[in-house]
Amino acid sequence: MDRFASVTGGLDALVDSGRLTGYVCGVRQDGRSRIASGGTRSPGGPALDPDAVFPLSSNTKPVGGVLALRLVELGILSLDDPVATHLPELSAPRVLARPGGPIDRTVPAGRQITLRHLLTMTAGVGWAGEGSPLTVAMGERQVAPGPYAPPMEPDEYLRLLGALPLADQPGRGWNYHTGSDVLGVLLARATGASVSGLVAEHVTGPLGLADCGFTTDPDRLPTCHGLGPDGALRPLDIRSRFDRPPRFESLACGLASTVADYLAFLDVLVDGGTVLGPEFAEMMTTDHLTPRQRADAEGFIGPGCGYGMQVEIRPDGVVGWAGGLGTIGYVDRRTGRCAAVFTTQSFDVPGTADALDSVWELVR
Predict the structure, then answer these.
(1) Which of 55, 136, 168, 190 is 20 to 30 A from 335, comparing alpha carbons?
(2) Which domain holds residue 127?
């Protein structure tokens, strides 16, 4: 039995045991993809098709990284210019006097936030720790990190976020997620275009990715599940998030895609393909973290791993990311072999982690 068949056999066993409702997985190398699916679109429902469209959640972030670096390559933006040129809401940020401390005890930021900071999650915005005052305040304003796009217009999002202090000084710590949403607002304002238009013009269009976008036919979306308060599976409201253009086109978590399209996208992380110069692909997939930032990222990145520009960097040359709604995609830059596993259940459901871990066998 070959490796791909062995992996799909293991995924089918998770389905048969009731630990996984459905999956689509695939590998790609030398321009050719191999894709398989198993399980059902919903518990007791019809079989899951290989061309099903899944919410990418945080698997959106690498797409945002490629887009941003393409605009740098074109000279539209510079990595080290202050983002306040286009985001005045962040022109004079305050910073928590103590990480995790009260939000009314702040000091001035010691430097301006740059695009480089946003791409590497070192801007000082983002996950501030479970139960911290800043995390609570972000949740109350609906600008906290999560698997879904902010439920407001981009200008309102920046107004609310900019009124809160940073979790850390720009360039010092590592805080997950929020920088990617700020990134989308920056790119749109700097170009005068929509985020969806930029993604289509510079990434999905040139790559021919017809099924990767901010909207999709809801009938192609399987029913995604998370855990309810009672520990039982509960359906998540995914369809309404993709059946019409969203108010906020999130580069943190807003895209949906098929496995086939995402595999083709992962090719870009090897050498840039048709959308990015090889030097920028190399920059994106190089670890940019300091030892302190790497410690801050513990639990988000694996042991011994680093973080580049919107992707995890593993010691063996494998780069990529995962999404909290049960998707994962990585590529081995040495061999060009890409792998992705998309499931119909979020990370908190028992069995999802086992399914996603099969990507490591597929990518080798």
Answers:
(1) 55
(2) 56-257+270-327
